[in-house]
Amino acid sequence: MTEDLGIGVIGTGMIGQDHIRRIADVLSGARVTAVADIDRTRAEEVAAKRGAKVYDDAGALIAAPEVDAVLVCSWGPAHIEAVLPGLEAGKPLFVEKPLAVSQDDCLKIIDAELTLGKRLIQVGYMRRYDAAYAALKKTIDSGAIGAPLMYHAAHRNARVPADLYTDDMAVADTMVHDIDVARFLLDDEVARIRVIAGKKNSIGGRLRDPILGVMEMAGGAVVTVEVSVNIQYGYDIRGEVSGETGTAELAEANRVVLKSGDSFCGRVPADWRERFIEAYDKELQDFINTAKGGTVSGPSAWDGYAIQVVSDAGIKAASSGEIVACEMVKKPALYT
Ligand SMILES: NC(=O)c1ccc[n+]([C@@H]2O[C@H](COP(=O)([O-])OP(=O)(O)OC[C@H]3O[C@@H](n4cnc5c(N)ncnc54)[C@H](O)[C@@H]3O)[C@@H](O)[C@H]2O)c1
Predict the structure, then answer these.
(1) CA of 97 to the centre of ligand 1 (A)
(2) Same-domain check for residues 160 and 87
(3) Ligand 1 centre from 17 Cα, in Å?
(4) pLDDT digit string, tens, across residues 141-196
(5) For residue 96, what are the domain limits?
(6) Are residues 181 and 242 in the same domain?
(7) Using CA atoms, how far apart are residues 320 and 195, in angstroms rounded to an integer?
(8) d(Cα 160, Cα 204) in Å, to the nearest integer?
(9) What is the DSSP letter of 75?
(10) How far apart are CA 88 and CA 263, in angstroms?
């Protein structure tokens, strides 16, 4: 396809609007031709700015002739109702995380993709497109630290909305990013997980915060992920891999280090948008480029499924205090 890819966006909320902005103002090779949202007024406002058509539901948008590929940016539980018809129509789909909210639905999606015999789904785990994580992966794969043995991560948010954020979300919405990174960096699946909640941050009120996820990968490597969601000072993302002969860690993300008096300092990003803005641009440009060729790359439906398994196990582990096994079906060859 030489002309611009026509993209239909389902869900014109916060991330949907952000992706529409980047397609229109930052990326190349695509334009937003259609939008749909259960909030029709919101969809109309967004469409008016971009000259896109408005559809009443996901099915009508997917069937539209000006839609070559689809972005699914609705709430997680609504993803399945867009993804299955999208696959049936044979249109490439960029699905914001989570792929779906149950393992059964993830497996239905995998089955539908297997029937097609090619990948049409890219899931929005954008950290793989971040320059620092890509460099960390390259360092590990180069053998510079020997075989990787442990991955230690921290995901710290300045704050979360006290009335909306729940204990389960610390795993299902927040820890999932490091679950994906651990699988990506270590090229392995999570075998079991334990979640420890210790002394509470009093600022979090009723929330169990912080928590520590401790995972064992199938090959034996150990992963620890701290999730703190009321750390106040900014959005602080850390990752370090220790190997047999060395360690490799994400460098500080700020571009300028100020030295003044007897101190040095740099900026801590305010939130995930600031920290990962370039990764979001790259992941979506990759989707546009590959979708034009009729398939996709990047995080797959399998990744979406495997992360869902670990997330479900993590939620169980957090409430029981037990170690919970992450039992997965056999990985289909399409995803190897
Ligand atoms: N990759 C990331 O880092 C990242 C960051 C933020 C959000 N997300 C994901 O993106 C998705 C959307 O999050 P958000 O923060 O933009 O939420 P949001 O509430 O701001 O927007 C969601 C929009 O979807 C619409 N919607 C809900 N059900 C729908 C349906 N059945 N059909 C059409 N529209 C529907 C809502 O009306 C709303 O406008 C979630 O799955 C979230 O987890 C991912």
Answers:
(1) 9
(2) no
(3) 10
(4) 999 999 999 999 999 999 999 889 999 999 999 999 999 999 999 999 999 999 99
(5) 5-126+278-300
(6) yes
(7) 9
(8) 9
(9) -
(10) 59
Split into its structural domains, the chain has a count of 2
178 & 318 share domain: yes
Decide if 86 contacts 70 (C-beta within 8 A): yes
Return the half-sphere exposure (C-beta side, CA atoms, 13 A cut-off) of residue 229: 23
Interval between CA 13 and ligand 1 midpoint (Å): 6
Which CATH number characterizes residue 287's domain? 3.40.50.720
Q: Do 211 and 314 reside in the same domain of the chain? A: yes
Residue positions counted in the chain: 336
* Chain-centre distance for alpha carbon 216: 21
Q: Note if the pTM is more than 0.85.
A: yes
- The 10s digit of each residue's pLDDT in 189-239 is 999 999 999 899 999 889 999 999 999 999 999 999 999 999 999 999 999
Residues 6+ apart with CB under 8 A from 249: 136, 238, 239, 240, 241
Same domain membership, residue 184 and residue 291: no
Does the C-beta of 42 come closer than 6 Å to ligand 1?
yes
Whole-number Cα distances in Å, 157 to 12, 216, 229, 269, 290? 24, 25, 4, 10, 33
149: helix, strand or coil = strand
Same domain? For 189 and 331 the reply is: yes
User: Is the sign of the CA dihedral 78, 84, 86, 87 positive or negative?
Assistant: positive
Token pair 């991330």 in the structure block, residue: 15
Pocket mutation for ligand 1, best pick of 17, 37, 155 (most atoms within 8 Å of C-beta) = 37
153/194 Cα distance (integer angstroms): 15
Same domain, 239 and 170: yes
Kind and range of the H or E element at 306? helix 301-320
**What one-character-per-residue DSSP string does 22-58 give?**
HHHHT-SSEEEEEEE-SSHHHHHHHHHHHT-EEESSH
